[in-house]
Each structure stands twice: as structure tokens, then as C-alpha cells.
């Protein structure tokens, strides 16, 4: 854990913030038809891949190709389209199909629930312990400041399970089960959340595991497995990209006290210290929804993600100017760093030998 106040002087923090504000303003003023054309082309590609994938399920020799096409379609829908549209990155177009409030993605997590837990909670309180619920998703110990309990000896197992069922983990995350156990939230408050979950999960299950398999007649079992495989690929990919953007070594966390009454410059500083990027080529960045530029995304969550590669070098230069780290590296290195942290934090940190009470979503995950 770091002391934000020790990084820069107040004057430096504000100058730093003004430089980042200038980048944001320049991009906002430049938004136009090229951005619309880009996202529309991605949507067309995603739809074509989904139709192709589902059509190939009718031809057993092409089953693997069908699974591959459907997997990429689901990744694009989840990462480059759904995540970014629901962040409001295209609200300025006034196009209902690109409205953050109307878009619904191909995953069991309802958009309305996700917009609250992710857009508001996570992006407002990024890496603030006991405020940002994305730290460990309620089941993992991902920071040494989290009090250790023997339950966390299963950290690697819980992480592997979460990766496999990631869309369900994201959905259940919105229940805030640990807060219910502590008496900070009632089940009555969760009723609207649960209703949205049930409706959305029912539609997803019905689509992928009943409707489309039945449409392929005698090939239904093969189609069922193909759809499950595509969902698994998407889950593993999303887990890897998101965890590599938030939990590699040297990504920092913060206390509520040190972030109290923070300025815009201090908020920017926290985003940079609490994020990590992943290097790669253009196709790789598209498949990550440009969350391979997690630093830029945390700085500017509501500008089109396609712009992040354009400003990454400039942001990195500003970090170097102020002596700040810019955490980036290839996927294999960031993923290995995350894996080591998961294993290391399964064990108690120095000075945390006594078991502490812990509440988790473990029962919820077993039920899923």
C-alpha cells in the first residue's frame, strides 16, 4: 500500500491532472464519424461471426470452426462492444442502439446491475479497500491488506473456479452477499437485483442451452456442448484480461482515509497506480475491448476505447515526466504475475497470523 500524498507535491498533482484533462478534452472534441464507423463495423463483424458459428453447428465436420467463430463473437460482444457501449462511450451519438442505458449484452449479468457495480462503484472507488468490490470479487484475497483467514488457503482453487464461470461470478457479485451477512444490506434490498438476475439468466440459458440446440435437431447435444465451449472460452479470456489489468505485481491499493476529499488530479493518480496494461498487436487489443489499455480506460472510462492506443504513449510520457510508474507488459508476464499473487496471498502476510472472520460469496459460487 502506498501513501498517495507522498508521490507528488500538491502543485505537481494539479499540474499532472491538468495535462490529463487536456488529453481528454482533445479526444472529446475530435469524436466523430470515424468512431461511429468503427463500432458499427465491430458490431457487423460480431454478428457475422455469431451467425457463422451457429450455422456451422449444423455441420459436424466444421464443429470446431463453429465453436471458434462463436467464441470470438461472444468475446467481441462482451469486451469491445458491450463493456464499452455500457460505459457511455457512444452516448454522444444519440443512437439508441449505442445507448449505455438501453444496451444489453450476451452474458448472464444484467446490464442494469453491472452499470451500478462496475461503472459507478468500481470506477469511482478504484482499488480503495472496503469500497471497490472488484478487489477479489468477494471470494479472493488479492491484496495483502485484506485480513487473512484460513479460508484463503483455497485462493488458487477459487480463482480457477471463478475463471471458468466468470460470467456467473460477475452476476452474483451484484448480490453483495458479504454485506448482507454483515447486516449492512438486507435481502429485501436485493429483490430488484435478484429479479433482474433471474430474468437475464433465464434468457441466456434458454437461448444457448435450449433454443439453439433444439434448432439443430439430432445434433442438439453437439450444439449444446459447442455453446457451452464458446461461453467457457469467453469466460476464461475475460477473466485473464480483467485480472491482468487490475492485479499484477506493483498495482497498488489505497485506504479510504488517504483518498478522502481527493481532487481530480489525485483521482487520476490513483487510477494510474491502481492499473496495469498488456502489450500486444491491434487484433489483440480489439479482442480485449482495448482493456489491454486498462490505465487509459481507468483514466477516461467514457471515451471510446479505440482511442486508448492513440494516447497511450502520451500518457506514458506524462507518467515518466512526473516520475510515476506505468505498469505494462506482455500477457504471459502479467498473467504469471497475477497467478503468483493469488498463490502468495493464499498464505498469511507477516503480522496477520490470527484468523479473522470473513464473509464470501463461496456458497453462491457453489450454487452456480
TrEMBL record:
Alphabetical list of InterPro entries matching this protein: FA_desaturase_dom, Fatty_acid_desaturase
GO cellular component, one term: membrane
Molecular function, one GO term: oxidoreductase activity, acting on paired donors, with oxidation of a pair of donors resulting in the reduction of molecular oxygen to two molecules of water
Native source organism of the sequence: Amycolatopsis sacchari
Renumbered residue ranges of the record's region Disordered: 349-368
CDD domains referenced in this protein's UniProt entry, alphabetically: Delta6-FADS-like
GO BP: lipid metabolic process
Protein name listed in UniProt: Fatty acid desaturase
Every Fatty acid desaturase domain range: 62-328
Amino acid at each position: 500500500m502506498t501513501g498517495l500524498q507522498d508521490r507528488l507535491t500538491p502543485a505537481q498533482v494539479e499540474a499532472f491532472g491538468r495535462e490529463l484533462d487536456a488529453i481528454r478534452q482533445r479526444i472529446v472534441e475530435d469524436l466523430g464519424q470515424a468512431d461511429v464507423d468503427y463500432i458499427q463495423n465491430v458490431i457487423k463483424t460480431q454478428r457475422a461471426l455469431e451467425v457463422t458459428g451457429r450455422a456451422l453447428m449444423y455441420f459436424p465436420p466444421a464443429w470446431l470452426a463453429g465453436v471458434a467463430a462463436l467464441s470470438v463473437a461472444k468475446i467481441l460482444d462482451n469486451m469491445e462492444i458491450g463493456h464499452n457501449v455500457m460505459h457511455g462511450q457512444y452516448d454522444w451519438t444519440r443512437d439508441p442502439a449505442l445507448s449505455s442505458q438501453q444496451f444489453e449484452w450476451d452474458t448472464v449479468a444484467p446490464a442494469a446491475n453491472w452499470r451500478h457495480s462496475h461503472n459507478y462503484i468500481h470506477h469511482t472507488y478504484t482499488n480503495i479497500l472496503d469500497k471497490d468490490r472488484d478487489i477479489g470479487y468477494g471470494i479472493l484475497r488479492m491484496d495483502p491488506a485484506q485480513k487473512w483467514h484460513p479460508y484463503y488457503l483455497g485462493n488458487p482453487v477459487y480463482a480457477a473456479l471463478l475463471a471458468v464461470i466468470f460470467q456467473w461470478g460477475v452476476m452474483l457479485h451484484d448480490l453483495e452477499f458479504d454485506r448482507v451477512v454483515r447486516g449492512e444490506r438486507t435481502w429485501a434490498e436485493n429483490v430488484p437485483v435478484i429479479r433482474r438476475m433471474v430474468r437475464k439468466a433465464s434468457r441466456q440459458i434458454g437461448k444457448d442451452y435450449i433454443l439453439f440446440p433444439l434448432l439443430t435437431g439430432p445434433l442438439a447435444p453437439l450444439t449444446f456442448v459447442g455453446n457451452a465451449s464458446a461461453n467457457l472460452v469467453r469466460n476464461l479470456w475475460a477473466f485473464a484480461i480483467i485480472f491482468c489489468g487490475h492485479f499484477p505485481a506493483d498495482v497498488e491499493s489505497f485506504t479510504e482515509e488517504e483518498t478522502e476529499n481527493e481532487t481530480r488530479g489525485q483521482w487520476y493518480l490513483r487510477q494510474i497506480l491502481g492499473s496495469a496494461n498488456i502489450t500486444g498487436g491491434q487484433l489483440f487489443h480489439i479482442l480485449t475491448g482495448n482493456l489491454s489499455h486498462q490505465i487509459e480506460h481507468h483514466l477516461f472510462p467514457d471515451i471510446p476505447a479505440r482511442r486508448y492506443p492513440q494516447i497511450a504513449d502520451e500518457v506514458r510520457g506524462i507518467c515518466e515526466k512526473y516520475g510515476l510508474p506505468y505498469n505494462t507488459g506482455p500477457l504471459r508476464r502479467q498473467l504469471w504475475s497475477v497467478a503468483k499473487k493469488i498463490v502468495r496471498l493464499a498464505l498469511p502476510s507477516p503480522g496477520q497470523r490470527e484468523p479473522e472472520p470473513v464473509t464470501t460469496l463461496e456458497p453462491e459460487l457453489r450454487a452456480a
